[in-house]
Amino acid sequence: MRESLIIDCHGHYTTAPKALEDWRKRQIANLKTPELGPKVAELKISDDELRDSIETNQLRLMKERGADLTIFSPRASFMAHHIGDLNTSQTWAALCNELCYRVSQLFPDHFIGAAMLPQSPGADIRTSIAEMEKCVKEYGFVGINLNPDPSGGHWTSPPLSDRSWYPLYEKMVELDVPAMIHVSTSCNACFHTTGSHYLNADTTAFMQCLTSDLFTDFPTLKFLIPHGGGAVPYHWGRFRGLAQELKKPLLKDHLLNNIFFDTCVYHQPGIDLLTRVIPVENVLFASEMIGAVRGIDPETGHYYDDTKRYIEAANLSAAERHQIYEGNARRVFPRLDAALTQKGL
Ligand SMILES: [Zn+2]
C-alpha cells in the first residue's frame, strides 16, 4: 500500500493579515451607518502577504508535523454571525471565503477550501445558498461550515432537524458537499467560546440528529462533528441508551452513515477513547491548527494540537490509520476525492 496522504480536514485561516481584522472592525463600528464604509474594495491584501501569512504558520507546521493537505475555511470565531444583519454577514462571508480561495490557489497542493456561510440570526437559510454554490462551483471548495447557532450562544434557531434547514440540505446533497457543524464566538458570558460553546454545540448537534429522523429524509447528507464529537464518544453509552428509549434504530444505523468525527482531541487518552468507541470509518484526521490551543503540553513536550502523534501512538492497524488520514476524508468529501484523483493522487 502506498503511503497515505495526510489530510487535515479541519483548518481555519486564523493567521490572515491584520488588514482583514481592521476591515471587520470598521464594518462593526459602522453597523448603523454602513454608508460610512468600509467598502469591499478597501480591503487590500497582496498575494505576497497571503503567502507570508501561510508559509510561516500553517504550512510550516504542516511540513514539520507531516500533514499534506488541509481543508481550509475562514476563522471560525471571526464568523460571528450574530453581529449586524444578513447584509453584514453576506459581505463578511464573501470576503473571508475569497481569501481562503486565494490561499488555495497560491498553494494548490496544500490547501483546499471549505466555505463559511453568511448566516444571520432569524434569516432564512436560503439566503446562504448562493454563497455556498459560488464557493463550490467557482472556488472549488469541497465542504461548508454550518453554524447551528448563529445567535452566538443564545440558541435562538430551531434544531438542525427542523424543516427550515432543509433547503440548505437539499442543495448540499445536490452539490455533494458535507457540512462541518461549527459554531462561532459566544456572546453569552456563560459559555467560553472554545472551551464550552464549541464542545456544547458538537454534543448538541449530535443529539438533535439522534432525536430526529433527519437522515431518513436525507440519506446522503453528511455532517462532520468537530473537536472529537464534543462529549459524544465519552458518553456513547448514554446516547445509545437514549436512542433505545426513543425507539430509534441502533446508532450505527441511525446516525453513523451520516455523522463523522474529527480527531481534534488534544491528548492521547482522548484519541484512544475516540478510536475505540467510534468505528474507525467514522473518524477523520484533523488538528484545527493553528487554533484554540496553541501551547506545548508540559507532560509530553509536544504541542497539544500536534494530533498526528496521537494517531500514530493509538492502537490502530496500518489500514485503520490510512482510513483516518485519507480514506475517510475522500469518502466524506467527494469533491476532494475528485480533485485528488484529477491530480493522479
Ligand atoms: Zn474549527
From TrEMBL:
Protein EC: 4.2.1.83
In Swiss-Prot or TrEMBL terms, this protein is called: 4-oxalmesaconate hydratase
State the InterPro entries in the record: ACMSD, Amidohydro-rel, Metal_Hydrolase
Q: Which organism is it from?
A: Herbaspirillum frisingense
Q: Which PANTHER family match?
A: 2-AMINO-3-CARBOXYLMUCONATE-6-SEMIALDEHYDE DECARBOXYLASE, ISO-OROTATE DECARBOXYLASE (EUROFUNG)
Read off the Pfam families from this record: Amidohydro_2
Keywords for the protein's UniProt record, in alphabetical order: Lyase
Locate the Amidohydrolase-related domain: which residues? Answer: 7-334
According to the UniProt entry, its GO molecular function terms are: 4-oxalmesaconate hydratase activity
